[in-house]
Specification:
By secondary structure, the chain is of the alpha/beta class. The protein is about 20% helix and about 30% strand. The chain is built from 6 helices and 13 strands. The protein is elongated, with a radius of gyration of 20 Å. The structure holds NADP nicotinamide-adenine-dinucleotide phosphate. NADP nicotinamide-adenine-dinucleotide phosphate binds next to α2, α3 and β9.
Length: about 240
């Protein structure tokens, strides 16, 4: 098959469109014909792109771990985030654990679906697995207009939360359309002077923004940060005592 493969660590100059062996299926895998693929920002810098789980080199490797495609054996259209330690989907075909697949949403085309998994799953996990966000709670989302933030705003609103977002003024209209109840311009306003007693802070920015966020939490509130996360490292999750 044809694939884009990385032969050494580096930028896009290390990626070559070339012939590659057809995928070899492991137990639990299915073969998917790729329709669309995303390469996540930072992916070319991550060790798993070049090494296996034991740290041994696995180049030439195929990037692109978010994708949409058709399961060869059943004809179903699926989308997924696949393991960063395995070959990605910048190829005609990918071997992927069947358990990683989900049916493609009917409302999205293949390119749109391939852009959803990592940012969407990150937002979902932060809100519901880590922060346990409940209907009626108030959440402050930093970086709300970004890749993860835009999913987080919609998911939090869908779950019945009161959503306060920090963003650049140019993005306020977008965030209103996504359901944000209150929007703070991070360039001209200090959120800690405007917000207090929130149940959850989702921090997609880190640094000074994270440091200033503790004071807006109510007692027992939770701050989840995804900022600067590297693959394989847990996100900081802390509760205000
Ligand atoms: N995307 C993913 O799938 C993913 C997954 C896991 C972890 N992460 C990590 O999560 C963090 C955010 O990633 P992302 O992809 O969502 O970022 P992104 O798409 O680059 O968006 C960042 C957003 O934050 C805004 N912003 C910058 N400084 C801000 C501040 N002080 N207060 C409020 N908003 C501010 C930016 O607006 P401007 O237009 O003003 O710059 C932009 O809208 C990164 O550290 C990333 O490594 C991302």
């Amino acid at each position: 098959m044809k694939a884009i493969r990385l032969h050494a660590q580096g930028g896009p100059e290390q990626a070559f469109y070339e012939d590659a062996p057809n995928p070899t299926l492991l137990e639990g895998d299915v073969l998917v014909r790729v329709l669309a693929v995303s390469t996540t920002r930072g992916e070319l810098d991550w060790p798993p792109t070049y090494n296996d789980q034991n740290g041994n080199p696995r180049t030439p490797s195929i990037p692109g771990h978010e994708f949409c495609g058709i399961v060869e054996s059943t004809g179903e259209t699926v989308y997924a985030l696949t393991s960063f330690f395995r070959n990605g989907a910048a190829a005609e075909y990918i071997e992927v654990r069947a358990a990683d697949l989900a049916p493609k949403p009917l409302t999205l085309d293949a390119v749109q679906a391939a852009a959803v998994p990592l940012a969407g799953l990150t937002a979902w996990q932060a809100l519901f697995d880590h922060a346990n966000l409940l209907p009626g709670q108030t959440i402050l989302i930093h970086g709300a207009a970004g890749g993860v933030g835009t999913f987080a705003v919609q998911l939090a609103k869908w779950n019945g939360a009161h959503v306060i977002a920090t963003a650049n003024a140019k993005d306020h209209e977008l965030l209103t359309s996504l359901g944000a109840d209150q929007i703070i311009d991070y360039k001209t306003q200090r959120f800690e002077e405007l917000v207090h007693d929130v149940d959850v802070v989702l921090d997609c920015i880190g640094g000074d923004t994270q440091d200033r966020s503790w004071q807006v939490l109510k007692r027992g509130g939770v701050l989840v940060s995804i900022a600067g996360e590297s693959i394989g490292q847990p996100s900081p999750i802390q509760s205000y005592p």
